[in-house]
Design a protein that fits this description.
The complex is a heterodimer.
Chain A lengths: L2 E3 L4 E9 L6 H11 L9 E4 L5 E14 L2 E9 L7 H8 L4 E6 L6 H17 L9 E5 L14 H12 L3 E3 L8 H25 L1
Parallel strand pairs in A: 2-5, 2-6, 6-7, 7-8
Antiparallel strand pairs in A: 1-2, 3-4, 4-5
Chain B lengths: L3 E3 L1 H14 L7 E6 L4 E6 L9 H21 L7 E5 L3 E8 L3 E8 L4 H20 L1
Antiparallel strand pairs in B: 2-3, 2-6, 4-5, 5-6
Helix pairs in contact in B: 1-3
Classes of the chains: A alpha/beta, B alpha+beta.
């Protein structure tokens, strides 16, 4: 749910990084937090367990400059990926304006990726949101594993599993080193801001 | 859940209601947020010893109340309309405003919880009227 503050001329949007456990959602946020100038980002909030797995969510607020005189502020959230935290995922999705689905390239995680996307669709429906109508970007993370003997999924396989219905843009990434992280962020930000602006601002500004 | 568009007029009206009812009664900070964790109004906190990260507080409060709401359902309640935490020097009170909004109040031991509960209950209807119609 975007918040448009006409008095301060600010637009606040919520973007959620979703995906199965251990796919690298928090790593994306950590890289963005490390790479961005302090004046353009807020404090990163993380609620994780002892094993570094996200328990509730991570939050990273960003200031992305002005569009048509409005300050664009994006709040990046992650969800806990483990299957048992479905209720928490549903809570974090409340009011989200854009989504990044992070997929794991390991062959053994193929089912988890597909189940995760189904779980996303289901939890969005609980919040009266429709995955097919929302801004969404896919990120195929951990591409560095493709150069190792570990069995991994090809881009064609990932596309077939996850993108045949969505038909959206995807980015190959190595979140630990930042490859593809900002490309993903830029794309989802553009899509989300356009989505919110088309709904409200274009008429409000006029 | 619809998007919120806040006009300067609505914000001014809400801000003045909160200041008159809560800040003037001794409350340090009052934040009006929505259930997605966005800050709609932020009043008070002029004390130098209280530097609050409103964005984190709003996100955690929204999540905490959402979790509390699920707990309510587990024991057969629809929802709990308020949540209160007592600290050594400071206390925090979360109250629902309308369907989608939450009023967070931070206050010291010099202000009674009863007063906060009364004032938040009084404010809830007026604030819901401004933002939710």
């Amino acid at each position: 749910m975007a918040l448009i503050d006409l008095s301060k001329k600010e637009v606040h949007c919520k973007v959620v990084y979703y995906g199965p456990g251990r796919c690298g959602k928090t790593t994306n946020l950590l890289y963005i937090h490390k790479a961005m100038d302090e004046k353009d980002r807020g404090k990163m909030l993380t609620i994780d367990t002892k094993g570094d797995r996200t328990l509730f969510f991570d939050l990273l607020p960003l200031n992305l400059g002005k569009i048509s005189g409005f300050d664009i502020r994006i709040q990046l959230y992650t969800v806990p990926g483990q299957v048992m935290y479905e209720a928490t995922r549903s809570l974090v999705l409340k009011g989200c304006d854009g989504l990044v689905y992070v997929a794991d390239p390991l062959k053994v995680r193929q089912e988890r990726n597909i189940e995760g996307l189904e779980d996303l669709r289901r939890n969005l429906e609980k919040n009266n949101l429709d995955l097919n109508k929302m801004p969404v970007v896919l990120q195929y993370n951990k591409r560095d594993l493709c150069d190792t003997p570990v069995p991994t999924l090809t881009i064609a396989e990932l596309e077939n599993d996850l993108n045949s219905q969505l038909n959206t843009s995807y980015y190959e990434a190595i979140a630990t080193t930042g490859v593809g992280v900002f490309e993903t962020l830029t794309e989802i930000t553009k899509k989300t801001v356009r989505y919110v602006a088309e709904k409200h601002l274009l008429t409000s500004i006029d | 859940m619809a998007d919120f568009v806040i006009t300067a007029q609505a914000q001014e009206k809400a801000g003045s209601l909160i200041v008159n009812s809560l800040i003037k009664a001794g409350v340090k900070t009052a934040l009006l947020i929505d259930s997605a964790g966005n800050v709609l109004a932020n009043c008070g906190h002029d004390q130098q010893d209280l530097d609050i990260d409103a964005i984190s507080l709003a996100a955690l409060a929204a999540a905490s109340l959402a979790a509390t709401s699920q707990i309510a359902k587990l024991i057969g309640e629809d929802d709990f309309s308020l949540l209160f935490h007592k600290g050594k020097n400071g206390n925090i009170h979360f109250g629902r405003v309308g369907v989608e909004l939450i009023l967070i109040t931070i206050f010291g031991d010099d202000v009674s919880l009863g007063l906060i509960r009364c004032r938040v209950a009084e404010l809830a209807d007026s604030l819901a009227q401004i933002f939710e119609g």
